[in-house]
Amino acid sequence: MPTPTLSIILPVLNEAAGITEVLAPLQTLRAEGIELIVVDGGSTDGTTGLATPVCDQCIGAPRGRASQMNAGAAVAQADRLLFLHADTRLPAQAIAAIHAALDTQPWGRFDVVIDGPHPMLKIVATMMNWRSRLTGIATGDQAIFVTRKAFNQIGGFADQPLMEDIAFSRRMKALGRPACLHQRVTTAGRRWETHGVFRTIVLMWWLRAAYALGAHPDDLAKRYGYAPRQS
Question: What CATH number labels 6-224?
Fold first, then answer.
């Protein structure tokens, strides 16, 4: 089989309720030569059984997006990588846009829109996009993509339970600012809606500020609600 032109790496954990819907629109891309890798962090709800038949590789890794994404990158066949969250959907012509961007820059991300009825979600997404353009820092919700050469050059994602996308962006900026694509990925607003939009906004601002001031990612993860990973 020909080497894929792009590998999509999708970290998951207990996504059985929606994994089929997540992977369905990616089947067309697989038919076009895109590799789809699902990296499970120890699901107990049958996620892997549902994902395995409709992806190119379904592997396990220690829980945590950074660990899982690094594991996916390690087995990926392509020289270009796209890290996609399970609750994020790609826009039309996303792959062509990624390839065009990576022809001239080592990494990049999309603008984002947050799917949900609350009017504040549009403002949150707009602020995320503006902040990212201004600072050169991408978030995982924005579907980060990168050349393998650049990914290997910085050593991949730091294996930390939170803010791995910020740490990654900081190191990548040494190689060049990101390609900030105006095409928008759509990410689910469930995090904001479940915990309260305003409460989540304040919490995320506080977490980012604390991280910038040197707080340890493990402590921030506990504040965010992540249980410690068992070794």
Answer: 3.90.550.10
